[in-house]
Amino acid sequence: MTATERSLPEPEPWLAAVVSSVASDAHTWNLVFLQLLLEELGCRVRNLGPCVPARELVAECHREPPDLVVLSSVNGHGYRDGLAAVRAVRSEPGLTTVPLVIGGKLGVAGRVDSAGREALIAAGADAVFEDGIDAITSFYQFVRSLPERATT
Ligand code: B12
Question: Where is the B12-binding domain (predicted)?
């Protein structure tokens, strides 16, 4: 073993993540950003792209069950569409416990109010990461806290 090999950090946890927009949202660079961030953390990412209807998100989660679902929206309608997406995922047998988060600019004025965030959590989101000074750090810590997948 060389000195370089000895100094390498421990491998990051390996998770299968789905990154998805919501039904109305056409923005894409937010999704690319999240994909790159998750890949840097050692995740394998399926990026479903923009304008994903809730039923399509559910179908993709059944097709290849993920360890983490990351919803992103920035067009201002993410709260409404996100709520529908979270409810659709959580109403599916087999998807009731998969870690699921949502973030971005979820309201028409950027952020939603606390009632909106609470509604997303009540619908089954594990966390809401709206734009702010610590959103990315908090998201990073959330992902790092997830257990490594049992099988590849
Ligand atoms: C480019 C752009 C477009 C392009 C998108 C092209 C494309 N292929 O993506 C086009 C022209 C299509 C577009 C359309 C619209 N847009 Co636009 N757009 C932008 C713009 C200028 C840049 C977005 C971008 O690419 N940013 C780069 C990425 C990397 O960053 P980001 O999107 O900000 O995402 C960051 C965070 O939000 C966060 N994040 C996002 N999701 C998540 C999820 C999690 C879990 C976490 C942790 C973090 C996170 O991480 C990212 C990196 O920090 C922004 C304004 C701006 N300067 O940001 C407006 C903006 C997003 N658009 C806006 C609006 C209103 C629209 C339209 C409704 C306009 C209209 N009337 O038609 C439409 C909506 C179309 C639709 N159906 O969705 C508003 C949204 C307002 C709000 N939410 O408060 C913005 C903010 C402009 C503004 N200031 O008003 N847009």
Answer: 14-152
